[in-house]
Amino acid sequence: MLLQPVLYRARYAMPMSTPLLENGAVVVQNGVIVAVGNYADLKCRFPSAIYHDLGDVILMPGLINAHCHLDYTMMRNQLQPGISFTKWIQGLNKIKFSLQEENVVAAMVQGWEELYSWGCTSVANIVSFPGLLEKLPASPLRLWQLIEVMDIRGPQQGKEGLLIAESFFNKNNESDGGEKIKVGISPHAPPTTSQELYRGSAYLAQQYHIPFCTHLAESEEEFEMFMQGSGVLFNFLKSFGRDMSDCGFQTPLQALLNNDLLPRGALLVHMNCLTSKDRELLAQRGNDFFIIHCPKTHRFFERAPFDWRFFQQNKYRLLLGTDSLASNDELNLFSEIQLFAATAPELAPEEILKMVTLNPAEALGMKGKLGELNAGAFADMIAIPFSGKKREAAEVVLHNKNFPVTCRL
407: pLDDT confidence band, cut at 50, 70 and 90? Predict the structure, then answer.
């Protein structure tokens, strides 16, 4: 059924893909944007549209969280910052495997409600318990449920993980990009995932045309494990019976790139510890991958500064994420934006805002549909109060400290 169009007028409209509009307007019909432009022009073009004057606000696309673990929402303040990565994993696992199903479901709901309250309208979520997804209620977010697979306990674990993932994909991977729940695959990380499982995951991503995401080059302990064949993480994982023959001679990034285990368009999370050889390899692949940085998690582990300049200089598209409440104290993308901006003062606010709008939309295969106000895009919009000058608008959005109004039709 074709509904009557609705015209939203705002002091400023921030399409992201085109310049800021003063006295802007967006016309929406059946949840999709049909026109964006000057209010007076659109009022003439759509005289029968239902009219909503949002007043002195900046109307912009809803934010996209490129990396989150909603499963871990109940872990807020349970793990202390500054501890070693291996101790953090041990603490996380202790909590994770003590949970009942209803705890995980409640945590995911609580997590997406917190994200939504802060203007996030889409999220790429890593799922540790795919069997629980059918028990979830409807979400206000557009959810990409990226099924996590690993085989730290042996090949059978990986095979079973891929079978579960493929079964879920067959049930849920609808062709219509408007579906709220979409799917993807996430081989966890090189320390916990064999090359064979990476290869199987890449095959599924390409077969089903879905996002592929992995944690990579995350910690000094991971780096020591692969480069030196030693260290606390090496010893910890060896105790599980992991085959350690891939350790002692190359970085985790080199192991994946040299064996062609990262499909084009892969979402690479963290990317903190890189050698000069790693950088040489990455410099040749600047348009192939998306890099996801989680500023508050980065600070939680007291890591060395994230080298965003290297990625920008080599034409990588940067995305921002909240990660989980096991290494963060809130699910608020504005906080992530602000912390990142403090480390990148030379970047224009508009460039940073692309990391939570246009760039993640492209990474999820939703360019033109999410992350912008444009004809044909979904009407996932947020409004931020502002009555100042046009040149200050992007800066105001960047430093927003208040809950925005979410306008989704």
Answer: confident
Q: Which pTM value belongs to this model?
A: 0.96
What lies within 8 Å, CB to CB, of 147 at 6+ separation is: 127, 130, 161, 164, 165, 168, 183, 184, 185, 186
pLDDT of amino acid 391: 95
Structural domains for the chain? 6-61+371-408 (2.30.40.10), 63-363 (3.20.20.140)
Distances (CA, A) of 194 to 158, 207, 260, 277, 300: 8, 20, 13, 22, 28
Number of neighbouring beta carbons within 10 Å of residue 230: 13
8 A C-beta contact, residue 316 and residue 289: yes
Q: What is the pLDDT of residue 3?
A: 87
